[in-house]
Write a structure and sequence with these properties.
With 91 residues, this protein is an all-alpha fold. The chain is 66% helix and 0% strand.
Length: 91
C-alpha cells in the first residue's frame, strides 16, 4: 500500500458503522468505557445510515463492496430484531 492510499475504503467505512451498531446493540463493550450498554435507537440509526448508503451507491460498487454491505446489513438487521424481541420480553 502506498503512503498516499487511504486506509478508509468503502468496506472499512461499512465495517466501522457495523462495529458501532453492535456496540449499541449490547453485543460488544464500548471501547471508551469498557462497559456493555444497549442503545437500540442509536443502533437503528446506524443501520439506517448503512441502508441509505447502500441505496445511494447502487451501481457504483464493486462486487466485493456490494457483498460486504449486503451481508453486513442482513446480519445487523437480524441482530436488531433479536435485540428488540429480547428487550420487549424483559419489560
Amino acid at each position: 500500500m502506498s503512503s498516499n492510499q487511504s486506509i478508509m475504503d468503502f468496506s472499512n467505512i461499512v465495517l466501522s458503522y457495523a462495529v458501532n451498531a453492535t456496540i449499541h446493540l449490547g453485543l460488544a463493550p464500548d471501547p471508551s468505557t469498557g462497559k456493555i450498554e444497549t442503545d437500540l435507537n442509536r443502533a437503528k440509526d446506524l443501520i439506517d445510515i448503512l441502508d441509505t448508503l447502500k441505496q445511494k451507491t447502487i451501481g457504483n460498487l464493486t462486487d466485493s463492496e456490494s457483498k460486504v454491505i449486503d451481508e453486513t446489513l442482513s446480519n445487523l438487521k437480524m441482530l436488531y430484531v433479536k435485540a428488540t424481541t429480547n428487550d420487549a420480553e424483559t419489560k
